[in-house]
Fold HIT family protein.
Amino acid sequence: MASSPTDTSQPGPSHPVVEDARSFAGVPDDTQRLWTPHRMAYIGGENKPEDPHDDEQCPFCAGPQRSDEDALIVHRGQVAYVILNLYPYNAGHLLVCPYRHVADYTELDDDEVREIAELTRTAMRVIRQVSDPAGFNLGMNQGPVAGAGIAAHLHQHVVPRWMGDANFLPIIGRTKAVPILLADTRQLYADAWP
C-alpha cells in the first residue's frame, strides 16, 4: 500500500525520511567538498561581452589597459602578451594573445605569428621551471563551435598537465581543483619570465 503525504508511519525502508538538503549547507559530515563558486561567473557568462566583435567590451583588449597585477598579465611583448586564464582548466593555465583584436589565425600578420609562437615557447619553459608539469596542451579554439569562449579575439592556450590531473572531478563533477590563487601564480610566472 502506497503511503500518502499525510502518512505518519515510522521511517524505515518503505518510508524513507526526505530532508531538504539546503538546510545542511556548511554542516560537517564525512563528505569532502571542493567549493568552486568562482566558476558560476563563467557558467553564467558574467564577464562575456554582449557584442563579441566590439573591442571595447573584449576582455583581451581591456586587459592590457590595466595593471599587470589587476589583469593577471604575466608578460607584455611587442605585439602580443601573456595572461593567466581567469577560468583555468588547470593551475597555471596561460593565454597568449595578440594586442590586436583579430578572431582568426589567418588574420595575424607575420610579426604576430612569430611573437605568439615565441611567447608560447617561453611560457612552456617558465611553467616547467616553476610548476614542473609532465606535459602540456597547446591550442587555439577557432570559433564558438570549436569551444572558443571569446571567439572574436584569438588566444593561444598553454595548459600545464600532470599525471592524474584528469580525475573524476572534471569528468563527473564538472569541477576543477586549482590549488593556488591566480595572483600568486601570476607573480611566480612573472618573476621567472626571462
Remarks:
- The chain has one domain: 49-192.
- The longest helix spans residues 110-131.
- The helical segments are 39-43, 59-62, 68-71, 110-131, 168-173, 182-192.
- The domain at 49-192 is CATH 3.30.428.10 (HIT family, subunit A).
